[in-house]
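Hello again, I could really use a second opinion on something today. For a while now I've been wondering how a particular protein folds. Please have a think about how the structure follows from the sequence. Here's the protein in full, and shout if anything looks odd to you:

***
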Amino acid sequence: MDTRGGRNIDREDPRVRDSETGDRRPRTGAGDAPAATVPAQGGRRARREGERRPVPGPGEGTRRHGAARSRRAGRSTKRKVLTWTAGTLGFVLLAGGVGGYLLYRHLNGNISTVDVGTAGSRNATSKDAVNILVIGTDSRIGLGGKYGDAGSVGHADTTILFHVAKDRSNATAVSIPRDMVTGIPDCPTKQKDGSTRTIKGTPEATYSPRFNESLGQAGRDPGCTMRTVTALTGLPVDHFILVNFEAVKTLSTAVGGVPICLTHDIDDTDERGQGSHLRLATGPHTVQGEQALQFVRTRHSLKNGSDLDRIDLQKQFLGSMIRQMKSGHTLTDPRKLYKLANAATKSLTVDTGIGGVDKLTALAKDLNRVDPEHITFTTLPVVDNPAEGKNHRTVVVDETRAPALFRALKNDVSLTEVAKKPTASDAKLKGPKADPSQVRVTVYNGGGPQGSAQTTLQWLQNTKGVPRSTNGGNAPGGQQDRTALAYAPDQADQARALAAMMGLSASALHPGTDGSRAGTDMTLTLGRDFKGPGAPLTGRSEPPADIPRAQADKNECVG
């Protein structure tokens, strides 16, 4: 036993430092010479990027000190699991985080980025709702022709729009069929020399273009897919994550396999010998590696042999992967974690707004606040292309159901029952209400049906007992989307009374703060959302009841 700097050092310690993880393990032979360095890790004591630290030899440190370090590492690992994602599983990066994250700085060099210009956000996180586009590309480049054309640049084979509510109470993952016929807008793309080239859009025709052509075709980059989704849904897309085939295999293996369940046998090879070549019997299975990739690409042996059937399999696979990630049983080994992160990030391409380990970590931590119970998978409502009958070769947007889903997403309406988190604005509705006879308000029409100000005035006076109301005519500020009530601080009780009569939400109430409205009537401006006196204006939009949906916390058999 030696003493240096006040520390006891056991020269007979039989363990060596692992060069890959930095942990001690039993010595196995002469080849276990102490490594000189290991990459600096993230955490409270992380060193600067690129800095390396010497690794003590086998004669340094005490057994007691090593045991304490081991206990701390065990606790720390569970708090700092880094989840990386790939293939259709890019979604898991957002929904399957497990607390904190181990940051291996050199992983930054693995991540490829694309500058999509104004198509996305420059900030990794946001205090508003967030929309992430996860794109699984069918590119065969670098795969040696194993899955078909080795020169295929890849199209948007699997696309999921992941919408996270502003208060992070819920999230909705909308699968977009690749064979959906839709227009593709003009797309400015950054070139290697720094210049910008605009790729001309393709208007919607009878049979084309298909949605998957928004990537790869004519040099279109992921920003073109983002713009196509925004044009389709009206939702701004903040970021994209593009991943390939190999990542599905890597992640599914790293978590020890993904449980799935089938309602009937699958033998996915058609008469021409094409298909995923997956063979599985009815019932539960656990798939990983090559078999996992076969599973998410299976479609020929399904009901209609279409992309819509395959989407159902993918939704089950993603939900199961999230449960595996959340369980904490598979990603607590530092060595496994490092190999997983290293392999997965090599398959990852993102926009510059999240182009780095720190940015991706910040985004994942933010979105990980959503409970899997309130993550819902659905498919964009579509119908068979009328020009092709019922062969499911191509589909088009269902104009009767899709708009309701888009409105629900815009208003953060969950597809599952979830308790609404109270907000600061909700306090405006709490408190005493004035007697209707004391309510003074001028009503303006700023977007409602013609004559709305007068019909509302009559309704207030004759039905609700508000004699001190006035018709102000058309709103001086022009038309607006939302109905709004402006009032002075000392009119809060009147505002609450009128809000209860009109069915106004807290977000429609706009109290003044500078006293400029003192002594004046409240101002009620009817917006485009106004349907008639007494019709509730709560800002809620209900999604269509008959759209297919699945929750991330439930395991259901499909096929």
Summary: The mean pLDDT is 76. The first strand starts at residue 2 and ends at 4. The radius of gyration is 29 Å.
